[in-house]
Here is the input.
Amino acid sequence: MRKNLNVIAAYSIMMVLILMVGIFQSWNIALSIFNLCLISAVMTMGANIQWGYAGLINFGIMGYTALGGLAAVLISVDPVQEAWRAGGFDILMSLWLMVVMVLVIRFILKRFEKSKIRTYSIAAIIISGILLIRFSAEPGIEAIEAVDPAKTGFLGGFGLPIIFSWIVGALFAGGLAFIVGKVALGLRADYLAIATLLISEIVIAIIKHEDWLTRGVKNVIGLKRPAPYEVDLQTTDWFIKLVEKFNSGKLSVIENLADRQAALNQHVIEGSSVFVKLCYSGLFLLVVIILLILTQKALYSPWGRMMRAIRDNEEAANAMGKNVVKQHLLIFILGSAIVGIAGAMLVTQDGLFTPGSYRPMRYTFLIWVMVIVGGSGNNFGAILGGFVVWFLWIEAAPISLFLINFFTAGISETNALKAHLIESVPYFRFLLMGLGLLFIMRYRPKGILPEKIEIK
Amino acid sequence: MDFVNAIILLLNYIFIPALTYGSQLALGAIFVTLIYGILRFANFATGDMMSFGTMATILFTWYFQSLGVSLGVLPTALLAIPFGIIFMIFYMLLIDKFVFKYYRNQKSPPVQFAMVSIGVMFVTQAVVRIIIGPGDRRFFDGEKFIIKAREFKEMTGLNEGLALKSTQVITIFVTIVLVSLLFWFLNRTKTGKSMKAYSDNEDLALLSGIDPKKIVLVTWVIAGILATIGGALYGLDKSFKPFTYFNNMLPIFAAAIVGGIGNPFGAFLGGYVIAFSEILLTYAYKKFFMYVLPESLEPNSLVQLLSTDYKFAVSFSILVIVLIYRPSGIFKGKVL
Here is the structure.
């Protein structure tokens, strides 16, 4: 108990802060911050597994998040029959061609010795294969995108409950990580960072512009929900009764029956959106707890010890007979898969998929700030980092507005400098994040909750 | 005649734009490579440092414009660039003193430097946005075109016009002058040579009496010059927007690595490799083939290898391929 005191203290402070937002701003805001904190926590856990356990630097978090989001779309949206009829065959054809191409390359790689001719022939196969696939898919893509472009214009998905996408998102992200890892994991740390960053940009470019699959920048809106809809709740009897019970004190003060009904309606509308957010919180919390248990178990298992050994001294671990390359690949896939889950959760919560919103600032660098600030190598630290940084990211604007007003209290409202500062309040969050990261790196390089390894 | 038309078409839509864009990338790439070679880290704040320099230039441009100072046909920004550079160098030295110096003395691993540079990126981004705002800023004035497409057509009687923007000429001219000066400095002067030595082997350089403080200072000064001029030229040619500058970091990194990171000449060429491949692969060649091929063979489609949406993806793919097959870059050779 004693040695975990700082963990408990840090988490209690965080909870109090969120409760304060609930009391002083509104419960709606507090809960949406809390939900996004939970999603950020899942992302940081993924990045922490890679960076904290194994020392692998992955700046491609944005790409895996987007793939998780894509999974949510592909799983939950109903299939567009017309589009399948129009171009499904061409798409399946090109998919089949792609599989054939990969198999042929594998065959060549297995069958022939490494030589210049082999490299060139593989390059030739890839280039001609891409051209072939492009030309065979072209008519299908055009046909699909022509199907009711204002509403669909894409193949749609499988029409399954969106919850499944959390697993599929992990599979997608893990699959991409397998390819990326095979290709790039041999690189030096800072090269790996740049390579993963650029690969994630390529992924985003594909998601943005392959309209037949993702609807691209036209966005997919109105995804199914695992939680009830506000509109339905507002007309359900048990929910109205529940709200009435909760607010009975406030309602009984109002004498007039019509006024009381109006007040109740107001409470029902507010309550319904809080209730929906609570449903999400429950689901997300479940995911976070399951992942936390699994990652903690892994951290203290022989496997976790091996990972740390590899991280701290690769050569020594190699000499002890550990397969460094394989373990790196494994942990790269695992971490990315967790990020994929978070991506799917994010889209589930928002109910919409907007490829244009995936930007490295928000989905890669911010997550890294969370990992570093929270404490790399420590799962509780990573989750805390997610909470603290997301909280500050959201609350930075009100805080800085307050500070500006406080420091410029003596200056008149029409002062140009003051007006300019107040106008640029949204950008103070970048300043806060940057300064926070720099201070933590300088004075507490292991993060708020540093890694703690107990040797039994 | 058709053949000449085709050539002019390629010049107008591929060669000149790619040369301009490549020059802008090349300046940024040399900046990245110098920092990497001498201070030994991948600077993720590259794009934002360039936007900071450009911002300073824009502020001075506005100041000169308000004073009524101008260069006639040339953009006023050219007058403001030296002041922007001074401002930029001052900012960079400040950051170095308060941030990077500590880690240099600690001999931190490059990854930690990269993380720190992300912190610097956040701060710089905030400073730029707070001072000048996130919006699009155009600060070009003076004569816009040297040759207009219509005039060119009238002059030569060809179907295709060749437009030559003054910013394009300025960009290419300034880049050539700056890069030649830089290579002269690195290869011929004592300070330049000691920089090379420091980048080659730090311990040996220290043993032979090279002052590391001076090397770091000179590196930041050169970096400031390159960042400001590169950023200002990009802003003059297109427009200034902090977010675009942040994104430009990626092709700049690609250029630096393709050319062999730590090798300024490689970075210079890398900029053009990236720019040309981006534009060559995403250009629709239909019109070109219409001029060159006989009528019966004319293509129906756009003859575009990749849609323009994939412009960035092209340079990144090149980079990934280079990283995998030749991690030391295309133009190997000695470091710096």
User: Anything to note?
Assistant: The first strand of chain B starts at residue 145 and ends at 147.
